[in-house]
Write a structure and sequence with these properties.
The protein has 169 residues and is mainly beta. 5% of the residues lie in helices and 41% in strands. It has one domain: Immunoglobulin-like (Sandwich). Strands 1, 4, 5, 9, 11, 16 and 17 form a seven-stranded mixed sheet that branches. The chain has a four-stranded antiparallel sheet with strand order 8-7-13-14. A hairpin with a 2-residue loop joins strand 7 and strand 8. The longest helix is centred in the first third of the chain and has 9 residues. The radius of gyration is 16 Å and the shape is elongated. It starts with 7 loop residues before the first helix and ends with a strand. This is DUF4232 domain-containing protein. InterPro entries: DUF4232 (IPR025326).
Length: 169
């Protein structure tokens, strides 16, 4: 699957390491309606898969940075990217999405599980991870430092994303 590079606006969003997304309430960020959420996003540190065929896990933490409650309802969207190529990550088998409401300063997490690729034709040379939080289609891009990801097919990475849950649960 081929896609175009993310626009500069997305790059600016990455620099701030925040996402503006999710339902519930109303709020503002620089005078703009953001549906009540402003999330700080932290990717990792993960337990990296060190050799081809090994499984690794990368936690992602979302922290509510505004006074209003922030409701996340559904699975996060995950795209693994390398230049013009991208691979969508499927939901973890058997995982059920939950509706999670975060108060200011509260955090939620989810985990990306992947199999390390061998660098061959059935590997994705991932450089960036794009995360879309359930709600408005706002996305943030983050560097991927965990090596190639094995592919089940040319379009499907051997990876999955778990449901969002309150941190510590």
């Amino acid at each position: 699957m081929r896609t175009l590079h993310a626009p500069l606006a997305l790059t600016a969003l990455v620099a701030a390491l925040t996402l503006t997304a999710c339902g519930g309430g109303s709020g503002s960020d620089n005078g703009k309606d953001t549906a009540g959420c402003r999330l700080a996003v932290e990717v990792g540190p993960g337990n990296a898969a060190t050799s081809a065929g090994d499984t690794g896990n990368v936690p992602v933490t979302l922290t509510n940075r505004v006074d209003a409650p922030c409701t996340l309802d559904g699975f996060p969207g995950i795209e693994l990217k390398d230049g013009d190529s991208s691979w969508s990550v499927a939901h973890a088998e058997g995982a059920k999405p939950a509706k999670v409401t975060l108060q200011k300063g509260e955090a939620a997490t989810f985990t990306i599980t992947y199999v390390r690729g061998d660098g061959g034709s059935l590997s994705a040379p991932v450089k960036n991870l794009e995360i879309t939080v359930p709600g408005p289609d706002e996305a943030g891009s983050h560097p991927w430092s965990y090596g190639d990801v094995a592919l089940k097919s040319r379009e499907a990475p051997d990876a999955s994303v778990g449901a969002i849950q309150i941190a510590g649960d």
